[in-house]
Design brief:
single chain, alpha/beta, Spore Coat Polysaccharide Biosynthesis Protein SpsA, Chain A, eight-stranded mixed β-sheet, 12 helices, globular
């Protein structure tokens, strides 16, 4: 590789990585302070259909329903629908038993099609001014639904996701640290106008704004930008709190991330994410989503150009040494280094898998999360 080209590639990859990982979050926080757009919150009680998509969730579905029945929300304004995605265990039986004791609960049996297909079917077959969604293995604080709903007092808001944390684990997963950083960044994006990605265990959409998405896409990444394209806001409500068990260890989390990033690449490459966006949200999407998902490729380009520039100057040697130290720390099992390297590498493997095999609408649950 000619050194002039190597230097261009080197500085381009350094700049892109520095921007998406560090500079953009700081810039978003600063910009949110200067020109924040507050949500006009007010306590309201719209009718809510709360949908839990489930496939073979007998281990957790009773706890999930007990938790939802304990929500501080008017009984007559809440309906809970379990959309069973062709469960083959006792999930349907357990939900039916709950439905027999509480009229708020309903079982909707769906053909096997994946989480989003079950959610879409549940939306079509229910009513309710607002649609709330949760995972079968999640738990909500009693006031979580109320905290979500107050954001819909603002007519510009179409989508709201809540805060989220992981239960303590004895394993090697460092996902909790990542989510604390993501929550901080979501606060900034929400104050700017709209977030770029949601949170699967706890979110809600105004029914009039709901969009049927490709079952392979997933709601977490697709719904926020679709709301913005339709002239509405997607916001973050940190006081509406949910929690769940993390993957057992960082290796399980790596496999979960590969599956998740396959769907993200599908949306990035075929979801028309950049269509009809204003300049601020366009910058958010490119910085937080496109460049973040490309971080594994950028690291590979940076590593290759660093080797090509050995002897070309001190800075190139220092950057190469830093990369090798990161890789050595990850190989030695240093917690945050191993997590970062594996998750970043997952973005590369997921792209390869997407290009080779496409993306299925269904996938297996991560180990240890139930």
């Amino acid at each position: 590789m000619p050194r002039v080209i190597a230097k261009v590639v080197f500085w381009g990859s350094v700049g892109a990585l520095a921007w998406t990982q560090a500079a953009y979050p700081v810039a978003a926080a600063g910009l949110a302070r200067l020109r924040g757009r507050p949500v006009r919150r007010r306590d309201i009680e719209p009718s809510v259909t709360l949908i839990v998509a489930a496939h073979d969730e007998e281990a957790v579905i009773e706890r999930r329903l007990e938790n939802l029945l304990a929500l501080d929300y008017p009984t007559e304004r809440l309906r809970i629908v379990v959309a069973s995605d062709a469960s083959t265990d006792r999930t349907d039986e357990l939900v039916d038993a709950f439905a027999g004791r509480d009229e708020r609960i309903e079982l909707l049996r769906c053909p096997r099609g994946g989480k989003v297909a079950a959610q879409n079917r549940a939306v079509r077959q229910t009513s309710g001014e607002v649609l709330a969604f949760s995972d079968a293995n999640a738990q909500w604080k009693p006031d979580a639904l109320r905290k979500l709903m107050r954001n819909f007092a603002d007519p510009d808001v179409a989508y709201v996701c809540g805060g989220h944390f992981y239960e303590a684990t004895d394993g090697t997963n460092r996902e909790g640290l990542y989510w604390r950083f993501e929550a901080w960044l979501r606060r900034s994006e929400s104050r700017l106008g709209s977030i770029t990605g949601g949170i699967g265990p706890i979110y809600a959409v105004r029914r009039s704004d709901y969009v049927d998405v490709d079952p392979r896409f997933g709601h977490d990444l697709a719904l926020p930008y679709l709301m913005v394209q339709h002239g509405k806001r997607a916001v973050f409500e940190p006081e509406a709190v949910a929690w769940e068990k993390p993957s057992r260890d960082v290796e399980d989390e790596y496999r979960r991330k590969v599956r998740m990033f396959e769907h993200c690449w599908l949306i990035v490459l075929r979801g028309r994410m950049l269509r009809g966006l204003g300049p601020t949200y366009l910058l958010e999407i490119v910085s937080h989503r496109h460049l973040r998902y490309a971080s594994g490729l950028l690291h590979l380009v940076l590593l290759g150009s660093s080797f090509a520039l050995i002897g070309a100057g001190l800075v190139y040697g220092v950057v190469l040494a830093a990369q090798l130290l990161l890789l050595a720390s990850a190989a030695a099992g240093v917690g945050i280094a191993r997590y970062y390297v594996l998750v970043t590498w997952a973005t590369v493997i997921s792209l390869v898998r997407y290009l080779r095999f496409g993306v299925p609408a269904v996938w297996a649950k991560a180990e240890g999360t139930r």
